[in-house]
Amino acid sequence: MTNLYKFNIRRAEIDDIPTIMEIMQEAFAKYCVLAKIEPAKITVTGETANDIANDIETKDVYVAVQDNIIIGSVRIEILSDNRARLSRFGVLGDYQGCGIGRTLLDTVDDSMRAKGIETLELYTAEMYKPLVEFYRRNGFKIEKVTNNRGYARAKLVKEYDNI
Prior knowledge:
alpha+beta, Aminopeptidase, 7-stranded mixed beta sheet, about 35% helix, about 30% strand
């Protein structure tokens, strides 16, 4: 039996792209079903390997790895005014509930604090209550909800105390 709790977090590399694509496809297929969103409304469905390569080069992209297999990933874009945006966050279904998502977020938090980031934001479907609650447990608060993509989309924000 595999110990699901033995994994590490590292920066993504170009060779990781195929697996990151698989994770995003699985995670966002589930996301669309549970949030009752048409897949065409989610930008990740059209993502290419080149898009991911560009993100690896221009953003902070982390992967969770167990036994040399990537089982989760997250991306962070540094914005202006000491802000950052978290996106493309997913953990393979067989590995959910093992603390991998939480550890990825802890890694993001450490990185953001080290960079002097004051606010981390993300967007998610407001209707996907378990996911919204996961983010709330990890320090995010709903700032607003919009329908700009054809579904109720919550902007969640986490503020860091960098004083």
